[in-house]
Amino acid sequence: MIEQVAIAFERKDYPTAAKLLKPLLKESPDNPWVQFYQGRLYEVANKRKEAEKIYRQLLKSTANSKIVLQARQGLQRIREIEQEEKQRAIAQATAEPCNTEQGVLILEPFSNELKATAAAKFAEIMQLDVYNARLVLPSRSWKLYRTGRVGELEFYGIQLQQAGIPCFWTAISAIDQIQVFQVNYFLESQPQATVICSNHTNQVGSLRFDWSEVSARVMGLLPIFEEVVDVGAWLKTKRKTQTQDYVQFCDLHLPGRRCIVRLYDQGYEFQQGVEIAPASSQNTIRINWNNLLSWINLHLPQAKVWSDFTPFAETVLEQKEMLGHIQSHINLHRKEKSDWDSAFHLYSGLIFTRLGR
Q1: Distance linking the first and last C-alpha atoms of the chain
Q2: d(CA 190, CA 210)
Q3: Which one, of 108, 98, 109, lies nearest residue 152 by Cα?
Q4: 191 exposed, middle or buried (CB, 10 Å; 0-12, 13-18, 19+)?
Q5: What is d(CA 215, CA 254) in angstroms, rounded to the nearest whole number?
Q6: Can you tell me the distance from the alpha carbon of 261 to that of 249, in angstroms, rounded to the nearest whole number?
Q7: Which of 248, 333, 243 is nearest to 296 (CA)?
Q8: 284-303 pLDDT, tens per residue?
Q9: Contact criterion met (CB below 8 Å) for 243 and 228
Q10: How far is residue 352's CA from residue 346's CA, in Å, rounded to a whole number?
Q11: Residues with Cβ < 8 Å from 98, sequence gap 6 or more?
């Protein structure tokens, strides 16, 4: 009977093959040839998941070299079909000019308890092994997973979301469109806040807004590097770059105005404008900055604070080409341009666009 099933498959007479196989599935369900042809029927019926499951089970349970070879060939056929479908879907997703823009795909964190299940789904969608997929999935903060054409990122992102894996994607141009104002100081705090600030062309002016307009506050530490001379073995000297200090940044998001109001400790004029705390010659920049943040907290009880910039930056800094296309709107006195600046603006911009959806 199994030979007749094989002949029917050779002739591509699948209805006859199914009819012949039906009694065999009842009489000899554990026969590996019966199982294999059941997998073939699933495959030709486009039930690829069921076929793949049978083929993989046969690879584990049988030593018959012919069955093993054909099961592997079946898996290869399924992979090729899925790859072709994926390429067609990506081509369709990137057909529109706006979908060919460069973008980023961000994975959002979730609990370790859910990682085992999510890793298997992630591995299937992104064609990874489960072990590496589990390492990729974040549990603490956002993680930049992939850069590329935003249409392609959307294609993968929708599949991940449907599988219960939190993520989002955006075009770099959406972040470039956000206006950034560098704050010199707060001129007034009531009934509205007024800041003296400069725009991207360094024109100084004022901006007034209601505190209730602020949707988020984004915190970040940006390292300042310096080149030092290190004396090593045999009194040999060599130059190396090390972190000298950190500059503290605070972004206030005003989504209704499509802008970010940016403050940083070395650029804020603490002796100007609203008195944040009693002036003292003993106050350091750190003390003044902490006083400023406490004062801002009193006015922004409703705004969420985002402070996971550093772990996010660690997933981004290797993407030098992408960061090189992001205008940071950060004007620190550096000897060399730093990707940390662009990484912070990317982080803040992603929060801005994410909350605005």
Answers
A1: 61
A2: 9
A3: 98
A4: exposed
A5: 6
A6: 11
A7: 248
A8: 889 999 999 999 999 998 89
A9: no
A10: 10
A11: 150, 171
| Local confidence band at 229 (pLDDT 50, 70, 90 cut-offs) | low
β-sheet bridge partners, residue 186: 195
What is the dihedral sign for C-alpha 350, 351, 356, 357? positive
User: For residue 273, is it left (φ>0), alpha (ψ between -120 and 50) or beta?
Assistant: left
Residue located via tokens 């605070």:
250
Cα angle value 205/207/212 (rounded, 5°) = 170
Cβ–Cβ < 8 Å for 308, 220 = no
Provide the residue type at 105 as one letter: L
Checking if the pLDDT of 357 tops 60, the result is no
- Locate tokens 């801005």: which residue? 352
Query: Which amino acid does the sequence have at 293?
Result: L
pLDDT tens figures, 5-56: 888 888 889 899 898 888 888 888 888 898 998 999 999 898 988 999 999 9
The residue type found at 185 is Y
